Every structure is written in C-alpha cells, then in structure tokens.
Amino acid sequence: VNSTTSDQTTSYPATIKGTQDIEVRPQVSGFIVKLCVDEGATVRKGQALFQIDPTQYAAAVGQAKAAVEKANVSTLTLTERNKKTLFDQKIISDFEYQTAVNQLMSAKASLAQAEAQLVSANQNLSFCTVTSPSNGVVGTFPYRVGSLVSASLPEPLTTVSDNSDMYVYFSMTEKELLALTKAGGTLKEQLEKMPAVRLQLADGSTYHHEGKIDAVSGVIDQSTGSVSMRAIFSNEGNVLRSGGTGNIIFPYTMNDIITIPQSA
C-alpha cells in the first residue's frame, strides 16, 4: 500500500468585528437642529451627520472679525514711520517717537490676539457640523433634534463602524499553532506562510471571499491552552456585520498517510 497526502480542514468558532468602531462625539455644546443621515446609513469620511445650532458660534466669529479690523495696525505703522523721519531730523523728542513705537507694538499684539480668537471662533463654528471620522455604517442615534449635547455626554452621538474590511477572531490550540510556526522565521514571515482561510456564516453558507490571518496573540491563555488569532476578510457587498458569528475553516495537509476508500 502506498502512502500519500490528504488535504483536510478544521473548523474554529469565530466572532466578526469591524476593523474599527469609532464613537462620534460633539466638540461644542448646543441643541441638535438637524439629523443629516438616518440610522444604519452608509457614510463616507467627512460626511455631515448632525447639525448643532450655530447661532452663538457665528456671533463669536463676527465679534472676532470686528476685533481684527479694529486693531488699526496699518495707521499706527504709518504714524511710526513718519515720527521716525521727524525723530531722525531732530524735530521731535525721543519720548514722542518711542510713544509711537509702543502704540504700534501694542496694536500688533492686539491684532495677533484677535486673529487667534478668530481662528478659534471659526473652528468652533465648523464643529457645529458633526462629520463622520471615516467611511462606514452609522449606528443608532440616542439623541434627536432638540437634544442638548456637549463633549461630556455619557453616550456618543452615534458610532461609525468601518466595515470595508472585517476582522474575524478565533482561537487555536498551542499544539496546532506550533505545527504551523515550527519552521521559524519572523512572525511576519510565519503569517505570510499560513494558508488562506474560509468563513462559514451563521446560516451554514460559505462566505465568497477568502481571508488571510494577519495577527496572532503573543500570549497563550493558560486556562484553555489556546492562542487568539485574527483573520481579515474583504466585506465587499456589506454581507458581514460587526458582532456576527461564524466558523473559520482552516485547511491543512496530512502527509504520509494511507487512504482507504470510503466504500470499503
């Protein structure tokens, strides 16, 4: 009887999570005046999600602009130049010239302060439009139009889940992992050598994309003797949802075995 090889698979229970679930929180206080998208909507990075009442922040921008215009630096610059000429010709005293210099320096300081306040006011005004921090799917909205919100909210305005790729977490025994990594090399090289894996969904069907193992825990769970592993799958078509479950189908090859036909 000749020995041969056989391709087999092993199944591991798995949980599915988005590559990142980002909490969205306001950076200014105010009443929500508009919901720009609905719950569960697919959004892109920078897309408006909520509108906070901008009235007080628009007024602050107006005040800061007025302060910039009142700084009067250009007029005092001309005055300082004229008095410098007169001082050089000994027509005015050093005191009178230094007074003009000090007035100009004070105006420049006031202008710098007003410009900083204008930048801050414009930034706060822009924060009134709460935007999505990434591409993904929007979660639920615990706060609606009319709700008073602030940066210290106990709950975020919503959560955006980046579902373009999905992480699938599963565990493997220490013995099984050693069989895969005993060839040595760096962790990156070991991960690259690991075979592609399949994902069996909760309804028993097999997900149409293959996944790649991209992370292995550096610590073995002593209570179970297992190692946590992570595979990444493309989520084209948004079939996979964060929080879902399934099974990772891991292929392996048995060498030098004797195969017996099932009919025997």
Keywords:
264 residues; alpha+beta; eight-stranded antiparallel sheet; four-stranded antiparallel sheet; 5 helices; 12 strands
What's the story with the biggest beta sheet?
A: 8 strands, antiparallel
Class inferred from helices and paired strands: alpha+beta
What is the quaternary state of this protein? Answer: single chain
Instruction: Classify the helix fraction into a percent range.
Output: 25-40%
Give me the strand/helix succession: EEEEHHHEEEEHHEEEE
Task: Specify Rg, calculated over alpha carbons.
Answer: 33 Å
The CA-CA distance between the termini, in Å, is 15 Å
Which spans have pLDDT < 50 for at least 5 consecutive residues? none
How much of the sequence lies in strands comes to 25-35%
Total of helices: 5
| Structure summary, number of beta strands | 12
What number is the mean pLDDT? 86
Based on CA inertia axes, which overall geometry fits? Answer: elongated
Strand and helix map with partners:
Layout: E1 4-24, E2 30-35, E3 42-43, E4 48-52, H1 55-69, H2 73-88, H3 94-126, E5 129-131, E6 136-138, E7 148-149, E8 158-173, H4 174-181, H5 187-193, E9 198-201, E10 212-216, E11 226-234, E12 245-257
